[in-house]
Amino acid sequence: MVVLYRLGGHVPLPGINMAALQQAFGQGEMGGLFGLYDMFVGGAFRRATIFATGIMPYITASIIIQLLGAVIPFFQRLQREGEEGRRKITQYTRYGALFIAAAQSLGMVAYLQNLNASSQAPVIITALTGWKFTLMAIISLTTGSAIIMWLAELMTEKGIGNGMSILILVGIVSRLPTTFFQEAVLVMEGGRSIFTEFIVVLGILFFIACAILLSQGTRQIPVQYARKVAGRKVYGGSATHLPLRINAAGVIPIIFASAVMFIPTLFISLLPDGGIKQVLTSALSGGSFFYNIFYGTIIVFFAYFYTAVIFNPVDVAENMKKYGGFIPGRRPGKQTSEYIDKVLTRITLPGAIGLALIAIVPVWFLQGATGGSGGLQYAVGGTTLLILVGVIIDTLQQVESHLLMRHYDGFMKKGRIRGRR
Question: What sign for the dihedral angle of Cα 370, 371, 374, 379?
């Protein structure tokens, strides 16, 4: 699946003059959110390929459906219908992803047409300008988005880990060798001192350590299980703990916030040139004060929202009560669920703020240390750094759990064979 995804990221749209496109981007046309977006899709946007939309339309549709599930009774009923409801929600998410991909493709076509007008060499072949190129590009990009969505679902269903996160991880990792090579060339040519590069490496390692600590930090709530006597056997009576992660949502808030930030940028590109477009572009440019405040606020919101989606204190309290477990000093049932919800709300706040800080501060550090050259702020900036660390740790944990399950299953089969003998 990864190989197919990377191959599709090198198939250009028909009618694109690749030499003129690379020349235009080589003159500094790519930057801000478009540079970050290009990092997410593994350079497919810079190459104007059929996979240029990436997995972002599917992520955006998932966000919208989950938000609708919190306010619209129809989607709330679907969420309570079990497997059949989840299947319908997935279908609606696919339809929404195709619609968003078509709108996003229109924005990309407008960007390419503006690039065609401002470049010396024509980026779009003359015979395909106008509505012909627009229609063909929208159909191609939307179809590419549908293929990526299918690959992501297959990877989630048949593989290990979340398919959406792994595709984003692959896109980011594919750009790292080029970025590191550019850094090495800058040092060898004297464009950057070895001391500056050393400080940059230390800073990156520090931010990686912070991201790992943030993803692994937990608050352990003590849980006691009552002792039960059945005949001559005694069950329960053990003491354990309920681990609550300070960042229970993982890397999802970062991915969701990045997808949301791309939407206004693409719609701004559809506006005619003028003062309003220039003001909005400068306000939403990567690194600006308004951009960082807005981006951090969205991250905090999605950290709370996604934690509420994946963790239900009422269900946890009911399961504890069913198996005779209780939190010392709290009555089983409602009082336990209220206590868990209170603790989770409190520890999620520093986790969400930590996510926002790690998403913003490394970009400031790298831009100040490198002067914005070399593209390190996109390759190992806060957003990409958190996604790399979060997805890798989550995938490794799932691999470990699969290995444990396979070992346990094999051990039990061997035991049964010995019993028969």
Answer: positive
Q: Quick one: which of 40, 77, 59 has its CA closest to 153?
A: 59
Nearest partner of 378 among 141, 388, 281, 19, judged by Cα? 388
- Contact yes or no for 57/101 (Cβ under 8 A): yes
Integer Cα distance of 261 and 243 in angstroms = 32
Q: What is the pLDDT of residues 330-363, one digit of tens each?
A: 888 888 888 889 999 999 999 999 988 888 888 8
**Residues forming a β-bridge with 242:** 221
Q: Of 57, 11, 51, 46, which is closest to residue 262 (Cα–Cα)?
A: 57
- For 205-218, the pLDDT digits (tens) are 898 888 888 888 88
One-character DSSP codes across 246-314? TTTTTTHHHHHHHHHHHHHHHHHTTSPSSHHHHHHHHHTSTT-HHHHHHHHHHHHHHHHHHHHHH--HH
The structural domains of the chain, ordered by start, are 1-191 (1.10.3370.10), 193-253+283-291+301-393 (1.10.3370.10)
